[in-house]
Amino acid sequence: MGKGWVKKWGARGKGHRPSHIPALEVEPTGLESSSWILPPSKSHLIRMLLLCALSKKKHTLLGFERMGEDAESMMRCLSQLGVNFFAKEDGIEITGKGMQGFTRSPSVLHAGNSGTALRLLIGLTSRLNFVSMVDGDASLRNRNHADLLAAISPLNVQFSYGIEQERLPILVHGPWNGNELHVDVDRSSQPYSSLLLSSSELDVDCIITTKGDAVSRRHAALTIDLMEESGATLNIEEEKTTIAPWTSNPPAEWIVPSDGSMMAFPILACVLKKQSVYIENPVEEKDALGHEIVLDFLSHFGVDMNDQTLNYVGKGTFVEINLRDANDLLPPLAAILALSGGGRLVGASHAKHKESNRIESAASLLRSFGLQCKIEEDGLSIEGGQTIIRPTTIVDTYGDHRIQMTALLLASESGGTIEGPRLHQIADPGFLERFSSVPTEVLVKGIQR
Questions:
Q1: Which CATH number is 344's domain given?
Q2: Most buried residue, 54, 76, 89, 92, by CB count within 10 Å?
Q3: How many CB atoms lie within 10 A of CB 115?
């Protein structure tokens, strides 16, 4: 079963490196419109879907017409566990089951490309008194999940691994026998978030002790905020988090905010095209999860923002940006710095553990377009004022949607062939609709790396 799902859901369409690679042929083109609609925040949406599923009531998530494939993967897996969903014009209606109401899925719970969905599902299924198989696409199979498994295993949850302890697929058989957990947060905040959400309907306090230098702290804070909106009471003292017994009860109507991490793409478009871009649904700072940092440095990119409009005003200046809490910004920011005033992206060591090693893959992306950079231990050093050239070979996107989306924008100026025709749909299904001339899907003869 596992091999079949990997073939179907692989980031490149069929397996790890087929003889012919699906790609998009992009010719130089402008933007279809000066308006830009940000997609819904998948960080919010995936957590909200789970919190509504953990409720025993009916809830409606509002504020979006389309969701990306990551959120769809979470919704599909929850549906397999018995949760009911009903699509609405501007959102989705959910009838939850509660922790005791989930039913065994007749097939694998496949998280697609979503690391967040996968880890939240591992936590959820570890509470259930039946066996679940949890899996993901080729990129998730290459990512490390050992921190979460190590945190849950002492509670006598049974895990059966496909190949190695940290790889997929994983057979999970709960429930928890105990209420105290220890988790490493040095590489990702997702294991901590998974444990927090999985504490629903315990009849005693749940105590989670963290260790390591926490990264993506705003995402962990988001989990806590949404839990508190859903009725949870948490006490956090340094590395110790205590969650009192709680049952999820989110608002009957819950607004999903725009995705702050996606703001880097209209900024790149503004710098690249040297034209104004109007943001129809800007994200509020409290919902931006650290990604509002891009707005703090607009002047260094040669951009200003008047009301909701990004305007190109000049070449920009050198800047150093710490991405400890916003490593998702690395690929588009790297391109922005190369085309504006240059700079350094630091504090992004944990970006090595995403869909790709984003430090190395972002550097490879820049070089494909003739842009020079230097790989450093925790980021990139990038010279400013560079000019892009058309890539001479297919641009590898490493199964990473943020690499692909950055590549597509760069190719809209120079032209180029970009691997992975569907990757943008993970977060922003309407991304290609922004181009005046829609890229053409092609098959390109594969070259072994």
A1: 3.65.10.10
A2: 54
A3: 19
pLDDT tens digits, residue range 146-187? 899 999 999 999 999 765 554 789 999 999 999 999 999 988
Q: Identify whether residues 250 and 264 lie together within a single domain.
A: no
Mean pLDDT of 251-278: 97
Of 255, 286, 303, the last residue of a domain is 255
Going by pLDDT thresholds of 50, 70 and 90, the confidence category of residue 350 is low
pLDDT tens-digit map of 196-210:
999 999 999 999 999
For the cut 60, the answer to whether the pLDDT of residue 10 exceeds it is: no
What is the extent of the structural domain holding 229?
42-255
Whether 426 has a pLDDT exceeding 80, the answer reads yes
Query: 301 and 156 in one domain?
Result: no
What is the pLDDT confidence band of residue 18, given thresholds at 50, 70 and 90?
A: low
